[in-house]
Design brief:
alpha/beta; 9 helices; disordered N terminus; disordered C terminus
């Protein structure tokens, strides 16, 4: 783990755990699992979106899998993290020399123009820290952004939701349960495989989803 990135992450986690949603930066093993669909047999050029870049640990893994003509857009809402990712890649000229375009946006994903432009989305958002309506809206955004046949990966920490459900606040427990139901509905309908990653702190499960044409997301007004 990059020492500067690690220190910045720990400072942010201590100050605002609700935003970071983790106790340590994502491991490289988790990054490999999140990007396993971006293997050497992928067609190029690719357009990839990472949502919630954090300190750039998974961003680095994504970039390593890209080739000439590929483009990676990273949306990170935290100004410090976004600046850190920019510095991290500005110092690595090999991506520019390889013909890979990397752009960092210090914006929430809700601000993006909803056009089907991406072949793959890597989502690193801590869904347990949101409410169910926000999670459903983010999934809607991903569906709008993916090209036909495109795929999205996201992860959840194993047992973190159960631990969050042990808090004393009834409202907080209900919020966590509602998020869990939303994610289960989503994965139950669109997940085509998953992968458990134990070499991460904490361990995580990675989901890979693909939308069918004309699919309706669970909980929307058109859902029957």
């Amino acid at each position: 783990m990059n020492l500067i990135s690690g220190r910045v992450f720990l400072q942010h986690a201590a100050r605002d755990f609700r935003r970071t949603g983790a106790i340590a930066p994502s491991s490289r093993t988790l990054g490999y699992a999140m990007t396993s669909e971006l293997g050497p047999h992928s067609l190029h050029p690719l357009r990839v979106l990472e949502v919630g870049g954090g300190t750039g640990s998974i961003t680095e893994v994504i970039a390593r899998r890209l080739a000439a003509g590929d483009r990676l857009d990273v949306y990170e809402i935290d100004r410090t993290f976004a600046a850190l990712i920019r510095r991290r890649f500005r110092a690595k000229r090999r991506y520019q020399e390889a013909g890979v375009t990397i752009r960092i946006y210090n914006k929430p994903i809700e601000s993006i123009e909803r056009l089907p432009r991406y072949d793959f989305i890597v989502s690193c958002l801590p869904f347990t820290n949101f409410n169910a309506n926000q999670v459903r809206e983010i999934f809607e955004i991903y569906r709008d952004l993916l090209k036909p046949g495109g795929a999205c990966s996201f992860y959840e920490y194993i047992l973190v939701r159960r631990a969050a459900g042990l808090v004393r606040s009834t409202l907080e427990r209900e919020r966590v349960k509602s998020v869990a139901r939303t994610v289960r509905q989503f994965t139950g309908r669109y997940c085509y495989k998953h992968n458990v990653v134990l070499r991460n702190l904490p361990p995580a499960i990675v989901y890979y989803v693909r939308f069918a044409d004309g699919a309706v997301l669970p909980g929307s007004d058109d859902d029957v």
